[in-house]
Amino acid sequence: MSRDKKPLLYAAGIVLLGVLAYRSSLFGKFLLDDLTLVVLNFHIRDLSGAAQLFTENIGAGIGQEVSSGFYRPLQILSYAVDFRLWNLSYTGYHLTNLALHILTALSVYWFVKLISKNGPLSFLAGALFAVHPVNTEAVSYISGRADPLCALFVFLCLICYIKYLDRSDIKYYLLFPLCYLCALLSREGGMILLAFIPLYHYSFRRRLRLADIAPFVIVTAVYILMRSFALKSMLPHYHSPASALQRVAGSFAAFSDYIRMLFLPYNLHMEYGRKVFNFNDPQVITGLLLFGLCAYFIFSRRNSRGLTFFSAAWFIIGLIPVSNIFPLGAYMAEHWLYLPSVGFFILLSSAVACLYRIKRNAAIALAAVALLGCTAATAKQNRYWSDPEAFYKRTLEYSPDSARMHTYLDLYYRMRPDSR
């Protein structure tokens, strides 16, 4: 097979697997925040007022005068486009989420290929990202769109940035700041690029020039001004029942669960809540040990650097903003893994690539089992998101004290046609 056709086949494989994994998500009804961000959001019903979306918080369309703490105009703009195309047909909104996720998976493949120069490894990383069940919250939940939207622009930014460094082409110098701004306007987590760019240089190039980083600084300043104007404050304010030390303990408890989810994605659900942990908790101790192993692995690779160091550090760095050290709405959430998990998938793909050099058939079989197993598990997990009543009830089994879930379940019963 010619080399020119292989990238197209790899891309087609990622698209096919993504569709197989998430086609059942297309029939999931509106639930939770979908009601406020889409169904009751009057600001998405007229594209002529799109410019206004860049001057308000994410909840302004339902009359929230007080800032919600989230400034994600591109997410809301995407709902406005959806409304123009589908009105309030939930299948159309899910289709957009699926398209964004597949495009993100393709950009993961493209990015990994640029840094690894290895087509099969890049395909496996992109395909695992496309079908792993841990991403269902970001993809099957319409209101989770901010994650794939932001991640897509993060990877497009990195791709354009690398191409600019390789070719010194002015078009890429103009494109990567634009992609960075779009990532920020999709979700505040896009600012993680300020850490990923130095990590890339340290891992592969070692020299970071002021001219290369200046566009990121300028765009960040522009974004801060836009966000401050829209929200009247920079950071969301959450009341946390846990002390700072307890939140640190909780971040290690979350770390142990994140590792478990990536290797064994079972019992996935929403609403992990604001649990309070102490350092004598077995889950916290497990998380500390796992984090220590990861930190040691990264430290031991600091001189050789390269793909293994980069992907392990990517995973840890990606989790820092959502570690709950600064109070957040929960101590952990599955969709917070959406961007950091790419580092894990690169590491896993690298391990399979090493096995391939020793036992080719075993590596191919392992990759096939992982991809097909994840695809089936994701298709099954989509059922969790398909029916609002079943969703609320199952979530309450894991978080029986969730006032939000009880409220939405009661609202669902009140809005059902048979309740009138």
Please give a structural write-up.
With 420 residues, the protein is an all-alpha fold. It has one domain (6-386). The chain contains 17 helices and no strands. It has helices spanning 6-22, 34-39, 73-86, 90-116, 119-131, 136-140, 146-167, 170-186, 193-205, 210-231, 244-263, 282-300, 306-319, 341-358, 360-386, 388-398, 403-415. Helix 1 runs antiparallel to helix 4, helix 5 packs across helix 14 (341-358) and helix 14 (341-358) packs antiparallel against helix 15 (360-386). The termini are far apart.
- Helical content (DSSP H or I, runs of 4+): 55-70%
The helix-and-strand class reads mainly alpha
Count of folded domains? 1
Mean pLDDT: 90
Radius of gyration: 21 Å
CA(first)-CA(last) distance: 63 Å
Most strands sheet: none
Order of helices and strands: HHHHHHHHHHHHHHHHH
- Give the uncertain stretches in residue-range form: none
Q: Classify the beta-strand content into a percent band.
A: under 5%
User: How many DSSP helices?
Assistant: 17
Number of strands: 0
Give the SSE map.
Elements: H1 6-22, H2 34-39, H3 73-86, H4 90-116, H5 119-131, H6 136-140, H7 146-167, H8 170-186, H9 193-205, H10 210-231, H11 244-263, H12 282-300, H13 306-319, H14 341-358, H15 360-386, H16 388-398, H17 403-415
